Amino acid sequence: MSGAAIVGAVTAAVAAGASIYSSKKQSKATKRAADQQAKSSAQQLNQQQQEFNRANQNEVDVSSILDSAQEGDSSATMLTGAGGIERDKLSLGGVSSLLGG
Q: What angle do CA 91, 95, 99 make, to 5 degrees?
């Protein structure tokens, strides 16, 4: 093999090596960018879910419950106010104690 052929082969090998190195470097950069984008998307989704939950909170209408309890309409809740509750309204099956008496 002549010197020019050897130099040409070495040059081609170096060029191929540089091309492979550059390709791997670009592949790593692309993977990093994709990972960063996925992380950013996940954070954005989490933030949107939190904002949605904040905007759509169910709030209890405590004043309405207390008003109906004070008016004596406590059938839906056990909020009885100062008057208490009648003993017969506490029994579910008709028997007022564990011993049946």
A: 120
